Amino acid sequence: MPGEGDVFDGAALARWGQRCLEGLERHRDEINALNVFPVADADTGNNLLTTMRAAVRAAEAETGPEPSTADSAGPSAHAVAVAMARAATVGARGNSGIILSQVLRGMAEGVAAGPLTAGSLRHALRRAAVLVREALSSPVEGTMLTILDRAAEHAADCADESLSAVALAAADGAAKALGETPTLLGVLREAGVVDAGARGLLVLLDELVAATGGRMPVRPAYVRRTPDRSGSADAGAAARRPGAVVAKPAVRPAADRSGVFERTDRRAAISGTVDGVADATGGSGCAPRVGGDETGGRPGRAEDGGVIARSGKSSSGSAGRGGADVPVAAVPAPQYEVMYLLTRTDERRAGRLREVLAGLGDSVVVVGDGAGAWSAHVHCADAGAAVEAGLAAGALSRIRIETLAVSAHASAGPADRGILAVTSGSGAVRLFEDAGATVLEGEVTAEELLAAIRALPHREVLVLPNGALPAHELVAVSVAARDGNRDVLMLPCASTVQGLAALAMHDAGRSAADDVFAMSEAAAGTRWGALRVAAERALTIVGTCEAGDGLGLVGHDVVVIDPDVRTAARTLLDRMLGLGGELVTILLGASTPAGLAEELTEHITAGFPGVEVVVYPGGQAGDLVQIGVE
Fold it and tell me: What are the tens digits of pLDDT across the range 120-135?
């Protein structure tokens, strides 16, 4: 007879997802600081958190924000798990996020016939391990895939038939394997860290233990260890000791760029439209290719055009797999991370895309959500070719291109540049904070803004005022805040959605002038509007409104008046999209009418095919909805 916690329904899975989200938030800095493979960009924790947030939002849509604990209430475990897997595939960030989506897909397949039990958890972990290995062009041990394998093995070996016992066995197996990752991957050993993505996966498994009624496992502090290069046998043994605990570094990792936001980068030198995003890859299970012939052929594969290349030496100095060394300079180093969503395709074409991308670069992952959508990821020198390969395989959307050239500097310490954003609403605050900004919340005065700028420790401060103060006050604040130790730059963001678009283009690796130019261009390229309710009878440029009318504004000007708020919202969207647009961001206010977000999304989909829509809970008090069109 199953005990309490031995059967997980849809509501319980949703609560587990929320626990995972909170756990990843707590461990984000730790995971970011561990990240050295395949690119040391300190973003793995951010990528996992952003991907899991997308999954949790989908779960909440199935169960409600506070899932019922009643056994008979709510959707099935399969319905919730499928929603989480699909949302994670679409919203995945970096290699680690894509792999996380496959863990959730494995969970969905594991509970296809009923709730999550000890038996279905074993099946889910086995299936997830298979899906992850199938998705990688060049699987590498010592990464998330190794930890997933060990978790599945230990779950299968557990003799206890309670769900919490099997979850604990899986988590303990993953923890043991995590401690051994430096022995399997030279770049981890050289850096004195365990694999960052694998550490994130352990967070999820530990939260499952707690969610099923077990005691939260106590893990060591997984932090960067200074490698002992004396060459002594004792030192080598210490480096391989699982779970070694060392002092935490005094310096926090570089300011994160979670990649929550997307925008159109019309300057990208590729055909078609590219949505750039401030997000570099996190930990993965893919090997970076550092050698090969000039054509960029994938090492060891003759079917990619008949080119056979050999792997050279890795950056850690260990010989690559594949045979004779080839000079590293023979193949251009990867310069871009390219990700996109692929639809209207199939297994065969997705598999071929994986091979083509492997010929263009490394860290290749192509995964499906089980329902026709695929997410692709690659590091390469030719971003245009990677996008063209996707176009040949199906219909593309959510294209994101990130420069990797600056990422190598992330591990050297935080950039001496901070972002200060003024916004209101709990959801909007979280969006800015997740992207690495310091937030000044609510209505602010010039004096409060000046104090907040001076409180930041950075030499360079970029301010996203988001319409909080008039231009002359912002100029006065920036002049007053500047001194010999600090430079302050105000960006032309008149609304929250413009601030989000600007922050999506932030890159601390650029000079301040270049960074501000790119961010300002993003803000200027975002038309913004708002839906409000008239508080009283008033005269506008389009006529007289009555108290309670729906008002549609573009910028600060009323362009729509309608007694019905929902009709006003649809008309406003028609006006804004009538001038063109490729991406619509909808920020929901604290008093947004129920179901309005879904109505507006359907309206855009039906009336403006090909336009992407992203919806975020903003929580702002003034605007029922704030809209950005890029």
Answer: 999 999 999 999 888 8
Per-residue pLDDT of 310-336, as tens digits, reads 222 233 333 333 333 333 334 455 678
Question: What is the secondary structure of 252-320 as a DSSP string?
Answer: PPPPP------EE-TT-SSSS--EE-S------SBPPP----TT-PPBT-STTTT--B---B-TTSPBP
Instruction: Calculate ∠ Cα 327-376-255, nearest 5°.
Output: 80
CA distance 485 to 330: 44
From residue 625, alpha-carbon distances to 104, 422, 549, 580, 586 in Å are 32, 18, 15, 20, 7
Residue 178 C-alpha from the chain's centroid: 22
**Residue 499 phi, psi dihedral angles, 5° rounding:** -65, -40
Q: Is the peptide bond before 609 cis (omega within 30 degrees of 0)?
A: no
Amino acid (1-letter code) at residue 433: E
Residue 390 and residue 129: Cα distance in Å, rounded?
25
- The pairing of beta strand 374-380 with beta strand 583-588: unpaired
Q: At what angle do helices 196-211 and 144-157 cross, to 10 degrees?
A: 30
Query: Which residues neighbour 393 within 8 Å (Cβ) at sequence distance 6 or greater?
Result: 342, 345, 349, 350, 352, 353
Q: Provide the token pair at 200.
A: 């994130």
Distance CA 181, CA 523 (A): 43
Helix ranges restricted to H, 158-243: 163-184, 186-191, 196-211, 233-239
Burial (0-12, 13-18, 19+ Cβ within 10 Å), 504: buried
Nearest alpha-carbon partner for 377 in 345, 339, 333, 341? 339
Residue 561 tokens, joined: 């008046």
User: What are the phi and psi torsion angles at 157 (to 5°)?
Assistant: -85, -10
Q: Are strands 543-545 and 527-533 parallel, antiparallel or unpaired?
A: unpaired
pTM over 0.90? The answer is no
Other C-beta atoms closer than 10 Å to the C-beta of 198 total: 32
- Nearest-Å Rg of the Cα atoms of the chain is 25
Task: Check if the beta carbon of residue 499 is closer than 8 Å to that of residue 493.
Answer: yes
Contacts of 297 (CB under 8 A, 6+ apart): 304, 305, 307, 308, 309, 359
pLDDT beneath 50: ranges in the chain: 1-4, 70-71, 228-331, 405-414
430: CB partners within 8 A, 6+ apart: none
516 CB-side CA count, 13 A: 16
Residue type, 463: V
Say if residues 353 and 339 touch (Cβ distance below 8 Å): no
Residue that is written with structure tokens 């909440």 in the block: 60
Is residue 266 within 8 Å of 276, Cβ to Cβ? no
CA 317 to chain centre: 31
Residue 306's Cα: distance from chain center in Å? 36
The DSSP line for 476-496 is HHHHHH-BTTBEEEE----SH
Please write the tens of the pLDDT for every residue from 51-60. 999 899 888 8
Q: How many helices (H) and strands (E) does the chain have?
A: 19, 18
Q: Name residue 218's amino acid.
A: V
Neighbours of 562 (CB within 10 A): 17
Contacts of 491 (CB under 8 A, 6+ apart): 462, 463, 464, 465, 499, 502, 516, 519, 520, 523
Query: What gap in Å lies between CA 97 and CA 282, rounded to an integer?
Result: 8
Helix axis angle for 196-211 and 94-110, nearest 10°, is 30
